Amino acid sequence: SGRFTYDPGFTSTASCESKLTYIDGEEGILLHRGYSIEQLSEDSSFMEVAYLMLRGELPTPDEYEEFTRTITLHTMVHEQLKTLYNGFRRDAHPMAIMCGVVGALSAFYHDSTDINDPEQRKIASHRMIAKMPTIAAMAYKYAIGQPFLYPDNSLSYTGNFLRMTFGVPAEPYEVNPVVERALDRIFILHADHEQNASTSTVRLAGSSGANPFACIAAGIACLWGPAHGGANEAALNMLTEIGHPSRIPEYIARAKDKDDPFRLMGFGHRVYKNYDPRATVMRKTVREVLSSLGVTNPVFDVALQLEEMALNDDYFIEKKLFPNVDFYSGIILSAIGFPTSMFTALFALARTVGWVAQWNEMIEDPAQRIGRPRQLYTGPTQRDYIPLDKR
Ligand code: CMC
């Protein structure tokens, strides 16, 4: 009891008003600025969705052209930023590097940190969206000991990221259009998801007036956890560990066992209690990508059979646990050639659009105040200090 509403995990507290993303968890509906995720992921592009989220409307062809050009102008990172990478161990997790390097952007771009100036906020937003692919690709290159590649602005946002990741200076790199489209779709599906943990983290960090790049770094730190963005990596690792459909029942039994902390990774969602509409799109895309690349992946069979067994199991039915977006994204990403350790970095790259749009919306909201949750204190009541020699 107390003067405050107790709501651990914020299951029933609206922290803000927002015009960006609508979710109906019972019906499995996800809309960005009113447009369904099914239509956006089918017909739109990630850059168009970025424009939509930042500006509120779909761009005209001229606006689209100008926006992509503007983002393109910011794809390079300061040369000095490169030296930061050398301070990391080669076996550092890419998300550890991302937390550090994105946070460090706040030490580089001083002309876009006055958050009360809409023009500076715009530049900071463009910079963040533009530099994330470069920073993520550099984290990968550093891990495998290959030289960093500069961005090539004749390519699309996603094509450019593929080249910076998989290209080498010595060879020309051909962007595979099927891979480019699939990855762009994954980016669209991850662009925003209203007040999830990492987005709430960005808003909370930003509510104190903190440096915009530092706020995004806070979001990256939160996303890293296996209950959130880290689930795509954990899901693929789990499917690989299961290895063969015959071992699925053992894992399902473990997931149901209350004495075993194991959970089926890529299953369940705080808001979706019917199905995750992003998972439906992703499931379709997996088939397209695997057949077009000619990749046969035994992990996909494990995934499909696991899904079927879980969906017909009373435990999962009663608890309304369905595959979420991360259950399938990992299969596509590994078919493309990304190591599992990069999966969450890709999620961060895409979610940057949502973080930046939400951060701007918060700053422009006249009702915005510093975020300051209260608590129910359950510690001791007031008591007298006893000197050390008397204890
Ligand atoms: N496997 C087995 N049991 C589960 C699972 C699972 N994946 N997810 C939830 N449960 C059970 C849980 O044990 C609990 O049972 P009980 O009521 O008997 O204690 C019940 O279902 C409700 O779970 P909860 O943890 O109270 O639900 P939540 O809303 O706090 O957590 C979640 C949601 C996504 C963190 C959780 O379902 C989970 O840990 N899933 C696995 C990780 C995962 O895939 N995360 C990605 C989320 S989607 C991408 C993103 O937005 O980042």
Automatic annotation (TrEMBL):
Keyword Membrane attributed: yes
Transmembrane helix recorded as keyword: yes
Gene3D superfamilies tied to this protein: 2.20.28.60, Citrate Synthase, domain 1 (1.10.580.10), Cytochrome P450-Terp, domain 2 (1.10.230.10)
Superkingdom to which the source organism belongs: Bacteria
Pathway stated in the Swiss-Prot or TrEMBL entry: Carbohydrate metabolism; tricarboxylic acid cycle; isocitrate from oxaloacetate: step 1/2
Keywords: Acyltransferase, Membrane, Transferase, Transmembrane, Transmembrane helix, Tricarboxylic acid cycle
Transmembrane regions: 327-350
GO terms assigned for molecular function: citrate synthase activity
Family annotation (InterPro entries): Citrate_synth-like_lrg_a-sub (IPR016142), Citrate_synth-like_sm_a-sub (IPR016143), Citrate_synthase (IPR002020), Citrate_synthase_AS (IPR019810), Citrate_synthase_bac-typ (IPR024176), Citrate_synthase_sf (IPR036969), Citrate_synthase_typ-I (IPR010953)
PROSITE patterns: CITRATE_SYNTHASE
Family the entry assigns: Belongs to the citrate synthase family.
Protein name per Swiss-Prot or TrEMBL: Citrate synthase
Organism: Pacificimonas aurantium
